[in-house]
Every structure is written in C-alpha cells, then in structure tokens.
Amino acid sequence: MSGNGGWAVAAVAAVTGGYALVSRRLAASAVSAPMVFTAAGLLIGPAGLGLLDLERDAGPVLTLAEAALALVLFTDAATVRSEEFRSGWFLPGRLLVVGLPLTIAGGGLLAWGLLPGLTGWEAALVGVILAPTDASVSKAAVFAPRIPAVVRHGLNAECGLNECLVLPAFAVLLVALPGTPASHQGAAGILRHVLLLSPLLGLVAGGLGGMLLSRSRAAGRVTDEWRRILPLALATGAGALAAATGGSAFVAAWVAGFAFAAALRAGPPPGPATDGEDGADDTLESVEHLAALLAALSFLVFGAVLLGPALAHLSWRVACYAVLSLTVVRALPTVLALAGSRLRPPTVAYTAWFGSRGLPSLVLGLIVAAEAAPGARSMGTAVAVTVGLGVLLHGVSSVPLADRYGRWYEAAASRRPSLRESVSGGLPLPEWKRR
C-alpha cells in the first residue's frame, strides 16, 4: 500500500476489534455489520482521513474484495442443500427464473433512461451488477427464527444462487467497455473461459478435494484443525487456477463449493473424532468465519474507496436511480414472479423489500470502477450510492419489519394452518448464518 498503509491497517484492525467486542449486542439491534464497516470506511477514505484511496491502493483493495466474494460463493454453494427445496422450492425458483432476468432488464432500462452519458451496454452492466442480493445486509430479517422457514430458506437460497448466475452476463458486458483487459479477449473467449473452463476447474478441484477428505477422515488420517483448513485451500486454489487461465475465479469457487459438498456427502461417514462436540460436521467452519471477516472488511473498503467519492459526485439522477432500484426494480419483478404462488401479500411485500444489495454488487462495482473506461466513474457512482443506501435502509428496517411480519405470520398461521407460508422449509440454517 501507500505510505499511509500502516495507519490504514491499524484503523482497520481497530474497527474490526471494536465491532467484535460488541457484536452480540449489535446483532440484536438495527445496526448491522455492513452498516458499521461501511461507515468506518467513509471515515478512513478520501472523504475522511484519506488513509485508503482506490487510485493509490487499487491492488490490495481489489484482491481483498475478490477473495471475499470467492470465499462467500464457495460457502454459499457448499451449504445449499436439496432438502431445503423439497417443499419450499417454489420461492427461490420463481425469484431466480422469473425475478432475476426481470430485475436485470429493469435495472438496465432505468439506468439507460435516467443516467446521462451511459451507453446501452454500460446501462445493462449496471443492471447486472445490482441484480444479485446479499442476505448479510439484512441478516436479522432473513434469519429471524419467527419468520416462516420457507421465506428464510427462500431468501437465503436466492442470495446463494443469483450472485453467481449473473457472472457470465457481467463478464460478457465487461468486454463492451473499450480499453479494458477483457475487451481484448472477445465475447466468445470470455464465454468459453467463464462457462466451460472455470466450472470444469471448480468441479475437479472441489469434487476431488471432497472425495479425498471424506476417505481421509473416515480412516482417521486428518486432524480436526486441518480438516477445517482444506476447504479454504480448495476455494483459493480453484479460483487461482481459473484466474491464471483467463477464466472467472468466482465461477470456479462457486462450482467447487457445490462439488466439494456433494463429494463429502457421498463419501463414507466420518469417524467420531471428526465431528464437533454436538455431532455436527463443522468442516466448513474456518472458511465460513474467514469469509465473514473478509466480507466485513470489503464493506469497509467499499465505504472508503467507492462510496465516499461517489457521494462527492451525487446528483438527483443518481439518488433517484438508487431509490427506484431498491424499490420498483426489485418489487415489480418479485410481484410478477410470485403471482399465482398463493403467498399472502405481506409475504410478497416482505420478500420484495429484503432483496438487499451487498457484497456481490460492491465487488463487481469495484472491478468496473478500477477499469480505465469512459463510463466507469458514472457506473461506479450509481452502484455505490445504490448499495450504500440499501445497506442503510435494509439494515435499519430489518429488526422492526422482521418482528412485525413474524407477528402477522404467527397470527395468520394460527387461524389457517394450511397457509402456503407454512410449508416445510427444510433443515435448520447453519449456526454460523444465524449469528
């Protein structure tokens, strides 16, 4: 980093340590981790103390953000279980098959009509960047125990799947930006590497790693500490191989997570020494905790290097786009996707509101902002303001709206046991996602 690197690291460590000391109390409040770290980023960025700057520290900032997203993709894929979809598949299925394409189209059309100076391809890129959702931004709303299981698992599964489904479109649209490294590969080369090579590398790395681990732990050859470290090596290795061969580290890590979990479940049962004290398999614990830490730090650098400068160039058009993106662009596709599902209006409204933008959008926004393209600043500003406003509004509203919706559901379910929201949602969420 720059000469301010030592001060920047010290500031980041102070924020991380301070949040850790009060994390339990804040978890039950309307103050979310993304809110705290984004605000801290504003303080230490160019708009505040000037300890972090994208032009000066682009390398470390992008490396941190990309590593965070790759690990989150790996863990999200590895913890998606088929049992969650046996009865409640219709909610994430509709949101992904119908809602996601409509959200991308709506966001792109709105950017093209409202943000001056953007080409059609650049507007479409903004729509793609702001399409994926992030449950961590509104964790209290998505994982609240009194929320019906089908809604909890539906929103969580949507976040775990849509963040990677947009990556091929993002890679192709990035080619349309003149002067970027991706533009020299061409759309065909990008698609070949993203849709073929990267999934293949992820499949091999995750599948082989899961198979070898299942046999090793069944034979008692692996210690608990290194069993938890192996997924980190697999996620990192799959992503690094894809990046080195011109593919997508994100796609490779996502596929590796699926393959690793599938191979682990298909292998021989673990010995008693390889499970946690309560008998639960905690193989993913270390990579999950590291992913959560890197995600929090990514919100900090987002506040510093993207949101702070964006606020300095804020216009009424950008502000209007951010508000409409978080409301109409999310709500209308959700209503259309859930039409005929027999879900009650409060559930549809709750699902529509908590389509929170977060880590995937900010990482893709940072990648675009770092490119030397004519429309990069305009796109980065729109993405930053939208994500920043969403972090604030979804974080503040998560606790009160979850409580209000939970009370409505309990009353409605007591009067009508056959309520559509009462279908089984599958297995309980992992403990690390409820914290």
UniProtKB/TrEMBL annotation:
Keyword tags: Antiport, Ion transport, Membrane, Transmembrane, Transmembrane helix, Transport
Domain Cation/H+ exchanger transmembrane: 13-402
Transmembrane segments: 6-22, 34-52, 58-74, 95-115, 190-213, 234-264, 290-311, 318-338, 382-402
GO molecular function: antiporter activity
Keyword Nucleus: no
GO cellular component, one term: plasma membrane
A Pfam entry, by short name: Na_H_Exchanger
GO biological process, one term: proton transmembrane transport
UniProt key word Chaperone: no
Bilayer disposition of the protein: Multi-pass membrane protein
Annotated localization: Cell membrane
Main location: membrane
The name this protein goes by in its record: Cation/H+ exchanger transmembrane domain-containing protein
